[in-house]
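It would be a great kindness if you could assist me with a short task in structural biology. The matter concerns a single protein, recorded as an amino acid sequence and a row of backbone structure tokens. The record follows directly beneath this note:
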Amino acid sequence: MARKRMSPAVIPSWKIKNAGFTLLEILISVVILSVGILGVTAMQTASLSSAVFTRNLDNCVYVASDALDRIAANPANIAGYTGGSYSDFVVTTTGGCGASSSDE
């Protein structure tokens, strides 16, 4: 059954006053939805950054634990594990990396 279209003289005044109001509601809803999506995206980025930091920290703990286990397993060679002067190593650079660029 087809609906009949009302002529402008028959359309109630409240329908004329509300013309375009639904469009405004949709625009506001889209803005609110986009702000929410941006918030979720920011939380996801922060979560991934935190996960990478935690993984790196876990690797550091693993390396330190391994070093301590090696020291505990071989206490006779504990003198070999002590730190000391590390002045006898050389760093070589290639390309455009020179000492003058890092002295700023």
About this structure: Residues 21-73 form the longest helix (53 residues). The chain is about 60% helix and 0% strand. Residues 48 and 54 are 10 Å apart (CA to CA). Helices lie at 13-17, 21-73, 99-102.
